[in-house]
Amino acid sequence: MGSINKRIEALEGLIQPPASPKDEAAALRRALIRDILDEFARLKASRAVHYRGGTPMVRIEPEDIPGKILGPGYTTGQMMELAIRRVLEREHKTAPDVLSACTVEHLVQTWTGFLREVSESQGGDWSKVEDDVA
User: How far is CA 20 from the centre of its chain?
Assistant: First the structure.
């Protein structure tokens, strides 16, 4: 029973409001990066080939959202920028008075630069062509 109570306390601790504006800003950054990474995963998953069972197996072609938007020959960096742009534009639509179009463009450039630095510092290839759907 003790471990259940600890789990409940930990979950309750996650939903409490931040104690200071600094904590609130950190929470917003974490939420934004989580949304960006979720969108990046969604874009990459849209390129996956699926099969429907039966005899014979039927290949289901991928939707390839980045390919439709960016065209052939897009890179990892372009796909990450697309993910950032889609997240921020979605936020702009929900609160245009808080997040202006000019601010969205500035944030897209800032976040793209930040994630590029992080990726390259970890050995990532920002210019790798991603459109080889197979």
Answer: 27
